[in-house]
């Protein structure tokens, strides 16, 4: 009898997608902490999803047409990258890249129909991701403080600069984020900021909890300064005012948005301009000071080189494994020996796609964003709109999909947010009740 009851309970949990939710819960915790430990849980999620849905294919295929199109576009993009193996020279690198981007297929598969529990607890998953990101940043700051403190006898001293590399700072950029690239953490942090703000505007939550979410959001926002991602800082300055304008317009309190925007800018702009990397650009291009290096920005050199290669391989690209080799050869041709040794990527996701897969691959890739925008605007899903704009801007400055940290983040949230995330409707209803 007990065995029968356990079987019934297990079957019920499988039908509701409980085990998929458990895997999703672990994935959103692990993603900001260390992406290296993510693949086993991704695979486990896929196994449970198959177990839960293999007898309910009709339900899986009955999802909205726009969701199906987005799913097909992700799969098509991945398959077209696989086609690039046919004409790439470096097969080993091509296979490595293709394997590293498997989450472009896996997350769409498990999230096109994620199960009842995942759908019902999407807010929980997003907030757990935010808390995981915040805890990771707290750990980074604590570690930076620990590395900065030295004890000599009975004297304690604080020096955030490494002795051998005095120009670095334990509280900035890659020194702060340890084994994670600061640009990826900047993406995680920025999305977490907006999840915090959405949680604050969730009027069904008690005010003291909403206030805690707001405080957490500002903590994460300040941490962007220390991450020193120029793209992240620029995107903050663009998207945060845009978010508050849209949010207060939805609430019918548009005049208050300007107060928020002005207060945030007053607080952030002086801090941002004091950031070492921002101050460097500000001095070069705005103040035009003589003591700033006037050398051309490396990204401009990389983009020019990438466009030169793309113009010769416009239709199909150079293949999924040859981008870095082709760029290195172009750097040598123009006399940039150090850049050739460093084997830079394109530092622009759209250029990287054009180089790898040609104009055909780029059209498929851009179509993904067109479909995502259609879903976001159709559902009036503000968080999804912000996520899309954020990723588009990061893609302009970084090859985000080159590493698992970027691929997983993009594919996971591109699909998890289509199911609503922290939608505005319940918050708006409660806000209207409070203001009537």
Q: Give me the count of strands.
A: 2
Beta-strand portion reads: under 5%
End-to-end C-alpha gap: 55 Å
Order of helices and strands: HHHHHHHHHEEHHHHHHHHHHHHH
Count of domains:
1
The biggest sheet, with number of strands, parallel, antiparallel or mixed sense and barrel status, is:
2 strands, antiparallel
**Biggest sheet, spatial arrangement of strands:** 1-2
Instruction: Please give the count of helices.
Output: 22
Low-confidence stretches: 1-6, 280-287, 289-294, 421-436
Structural class: mainly alpha
Give the averaged pLDDT, no decimals: 83
Task: Give a brief rundown of this model.
This protein has 436 residues and is an all-alpha fold.
Write up what this structure looks like.
It is built from 22 helices and 2 strands. It has a two-stranded antiparallel sheet with strand order 1-2. The chain has one domain (about 1-435). The radius of gyration is 23 Å and the shape is globular. It is mainly α. Helix 7 (about 105-110) packs parallel to helix 21 and helix 13 (about 230-250) packs antiparallel against helix 20 (about 380-395). The chain starts with a helix and ends with a helix. The longest helix has 30 residues, at about 350-380. A hairpin with a 2-residue loop joins strand 1 (about 150) and strand 2 (about 155-160).
């Amino acid at each position: 009898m007990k065995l029968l009851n356990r079987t019934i309970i297990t079957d019920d949990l499988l039908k509701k997608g409980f085990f998929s939710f458990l895997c999703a819960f672990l994935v959103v915790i692990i993603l900001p902490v260390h992406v290296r430990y993510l693949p086993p849980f991704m695979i486990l999620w896929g196994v449970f999803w198959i177990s839960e849905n293999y007898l309910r294919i009709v339900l899986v295929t009955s999802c909205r047409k726009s969701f199906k199109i987005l799913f097909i576009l992700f799969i098509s993009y991945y398959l077209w990258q696989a086609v690039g193996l046919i004409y790439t020279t470096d097969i080993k690198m091509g296979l490595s890249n293709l394997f590293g981007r498997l989450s472009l297929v896996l997350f769409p598969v498990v999230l096109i129909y994620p199960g009842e529990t995942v759908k019902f607890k999407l807010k929980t998953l997003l907030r757990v991701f935010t808390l995981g990101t915040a805890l990771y940043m707290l750990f980074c700051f604590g570690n930076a403080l620990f590395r900065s403190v030295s004890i000599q006898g009975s004297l304690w001293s604080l020096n955030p600069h490494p002795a051998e590399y005095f120009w670095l700072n334990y509280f900035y950029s890659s020194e702060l984020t340890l084994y994670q690239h600061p640009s990826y953490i900047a993406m995680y942090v920025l999305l977490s900021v907006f999840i915090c703000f959405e949680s604050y505007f969730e009027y069904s939550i008690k005010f003291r909890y909403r206030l805690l979410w707001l405080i957490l959001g500002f903590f994460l926002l300040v941490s962007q300064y220390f991450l020193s991602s120029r793209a992240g800082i620029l995107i903050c300055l663009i998207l945060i005012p845009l978010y508050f304008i849209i949010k207060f317009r939805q609430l019918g309190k548009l005049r208050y948005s300007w107060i928020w925007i002005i207060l945030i800018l007053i607080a952030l702009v002086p801090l941002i301009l004091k950031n070492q990397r921002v101050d460097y650009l500000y001095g070069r291009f705005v103040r035009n000071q003589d003591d700033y290096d006037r050398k051309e920005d490396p990204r401009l050199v990389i983009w020019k080189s990438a466009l030169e290669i793309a113009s010769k391989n416009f239709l199909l690209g150079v293949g999924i494994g040859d981008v870095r080799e082709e760029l290195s050869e172009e750097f040598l041709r123009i006399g940039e020996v150090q850049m050739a040794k460093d084997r830079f990527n394109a530092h622009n996701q759209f250029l990287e796609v054009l180089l790898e897969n040609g104009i055909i691959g780029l059209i498929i890739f851009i179509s993904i964003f067109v479909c995502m925008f259609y879903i976001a605007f159709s559902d009036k899903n503000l968080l999804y709109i912000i996520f899309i704009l954020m990723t588009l801007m990061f893609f302009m400055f970084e090859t985000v999909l080159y590493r698992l940290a970027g691929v997983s983040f993009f594919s996971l949230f591109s699909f998890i947010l289509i199911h609503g995330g922290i939608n505005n409707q319940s918050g708006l209803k409660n806000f209207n009740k409070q203001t009537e």
